[in-house]
Specification:
Largest sheet: 5 strands, mixed
Helix content: 25-40%
Order of helices and strands: HEHEHEEEEHHEH
Distance between the termini: 50 Å
Number of helices: 6
Radius of gyration: 19 Å
Length: 158
């Protein structure tokens, strides 16, 4: 009887009728990358009820979890650092040379994905979200500012 129950539960899980077991993905050192890859990764994590724990540096597109997952699915350790800046588009020529350019549309997309409290804090630290001005330097959120925008893992204080 027990094996039949396991088979039924496995079938329901495979069919998507039961939520998958929530796993925690820990970020230690992630400098970001292609925005659409992060949007897809975090959307899949949200839909699969996976959790994110930031224990180190998370910059650029890595920070998009703040706008794509509910707060119940992520937390930050006191050692975490979140880095924000405008987006860059990379163009590759036929000869393989890469050109990096400010991407106002992608910058607007990123900034608008963040919750209000994140946008407010990032603005106060130097990136105002203006899609007509590149801001390639990272604006770091760490220490006491972390708990203003994300739950602290285990309720620890910075």
């Amino acid at each position: 009887m027990k094996s039949l129950l396991h088979l039924v539960l496995a079938g329901l899980l495979t069919a998507g009728l039961l939520p998958a077991r929530a796993e925690t993905y820990t970020i230690h050192d992630d400098g970001g990358g292609v925005i659409v890859k992060y949007v897809r990764r975090y959307s899949d994590m949200r839909d699969n009820h996976q959790k994110i724990e930031v224990a180190g540096e998370c910059a650029s597109a890595c920070t998009l979890f703040l706008g794509l997952l509910p707060e119940t699915q992520y937390c930050v350790r006191p050692t975490a650092r979140l880095g924000f800046h405008t987006a860059t588009a990379i163009t590759r020529a036929r000869n393989g040379k890469e050109t990096f350019e400010y991407a106002p549309e992608l910058s607007y997309l990123m900034f608008s994905l963040y919750p209000y409290k994140v946008r407010k804090l990032v603005k106060s630290l130097g990136w105002d979200g203006d899609d007509n001005k590149p801001h390639p330097d990272l604006v770091w959120v760490e220490g006491d500012n972390l708990e203003k925008i994300a739950p602290i893992c285990g309720g620890e204080k910075t």
